[in-house]
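Hey, I'm writing a tutorial for new members on how sequence and structure tokens pair up, and I'd like a real worked example in the thread rather than a made-up one. If someone can provide the structure for the chain below, I'll link this post from the tutorial.
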Amino acid sequence: MKKIIIAFVAISAGLFSYGQNTTNIEGSSYSFTKIAHLDATPVLSQGYTGTCWSFSALSFFESEMIRKGIKNPPILSQMYVARKAYEGKAENYIRMDGKANFSEGGAFHDIPYVFERYGIVPNEVYQGLNYGTDRHNHQQVFKSLNGYMGGVLDYVQGKGSAPLSSAWKLGLNGILDAYFGEDPTKFTYEGKEYTPRSFAESTKLNMDEYISLTSFTHFPMHEEVQLMIQDNWAWGKSHNVSMDELLEATVHALENGYTVAWASDVSEKGFNFGKGLAIVPEDESTIKVKGRDNSNFSDAGADKESDAFLTPVKEITVTPEMRQEGYENKTTTDDHGMHITGLYEEANGTRYFLVKNSWGTGNYPQGYLYVSENYFKLKTINVYLHKDALPKKLMKSLKK
């Protein structure tokens, strides 16, 4: 997931009370009725970075802390996770002779990878803004890291070179320290001293309680498989289920008090954060696109206009074959991570997910958007949720 956007919203503590708008934008005739609406921490902005995976997954875990009884959970440090993930990516990159992905992107599995190896810290302790601005911008950060890793790899692969010195990791951490700040080993939070590991224990989160679901026909059904996306550098596993099971597991979770982390393709004409809506109209030609998205399909690029964002239209009937075709021909890619916090029904009977984004609160639904179940079925890469949120029949069918 590499989605980027420029807007920035300051981090604030406390729960965010979404206004529960019954429509997606002023002047729209979409009318949504609440089925389930769950608590979440405030909407943030990832700034000009490719760290949507960290923002969305940590938002999900913050909602999990709320569900577990922590009334005012801390905002967890997205950049602590990004920093420790960079360390892991770098090791993989060298061990795999440059054939492993080294990028800003990541996946939901990165949070348990970091949590279990290192712990976690609150955002106010480690904001990762050691480069003199009040907003996240990783353009220079990544160019520095990427250039350094390229140099290390060139040395390893050069003719007649000596064995690789372990000092290369000190060099990598020097760059990370310079841009993100020194790696915290001890800190004080709300009058109590912690290490990252002891703070992780205080969150009441157990990473073994969570599961990833995906749905592709090239995998065996109900088996645990490796999610085949380039940003899955940690080689995290997902359980492959049918398209309908994927949808209903997400609906069941929300109806029973569990939020869901959601990875999806957002490059479609029907995905319009500015209009607070994601749909897959039968007649996509009605959507007029002005300008163009950047190479990471940032919503800050093209402007999308259509009556379909103001008046409900008929959507395509999504099949598993359509899902698979999009994956195979690369029209469905792992663009962006978000957090599903609610379930609504539009007046025409279509279910919509209320989705918390990490692009700030500049749009009408205050940083959220409504995603139709049809869009979800067509463009979902995977979801991440608590095991207890799964329907019992589905849980029994999953093979270890």
